[in-house]
Design brief:
InterPro entries: Asp_de-COase-like_dom_sf, MoPterin_dinucl-bd_dom, Prok_Mopterin_Oxidored. This protein has 122 residues and is of the alpha+beta class. A three-stranded mixed sheet has the order 4-1-5. Strands 3-2-8 form a three-stranded antiparallel sheet, with no helix packed on it. A two-stranded antiparallel ribbon has the order 6-7.
């Protein structure tokens, strides 16, 4: 989770610390990457990691368990906590002009994770 150095300093977060990204839809935990040059108040993240599909999750075929691939599952997956369309179940808002998913306007807050309390979520 890339964040502005100014925000990290204000929140007492160091590069590599575990943090929570919290939205009205839920929360996800990841490691802080503190960078200069990011606008304060903005969180940046790469899309495409922490899959649930594409062979990442366990599933059954004809009653036989097929184990998911941990490498495909690795990383943080923020789609579930992004702002969603209130009229379409589990659908992210769409930009009507460009037709892409609107990841750019989800309000979130960042909290430093308390590892003693939050270790189960690591």
């Amino acid at each position: 989770m890339n964040m502005a150095a100014e925000d990290a300093k204000r929140l007492g977060i160091a590069d590599g610390d575990w943090i929570w990204v919290v939205t009205p839809e839920g929360k996800r935990k990841g490691r802080a990457v503190v960078l200069e040059g990011i606008r304060p108040g903005v969180i940046l993240f790469e899309v495409g990691y922490g899959h649930w599909g594409y062979g990442a999750s366990n599933y059954q075929v004809a009653g036989k368990r097929v184990a998911g691939d941990k490498v495909r599952r690795a990383g943080i997956h923020l789609n579930p906590i992004m702002r969603r369309d209130p009229d379409v179940w589990q659908m992210a808002l769409m930009d009507l002009t460009g037709g892409s998913v609107v990841f750019y306007n989800t309000r979130a807050r960042v909290e430093r994770a308390d590892m003693a309390k939050d270790v189960a979520y690591a």
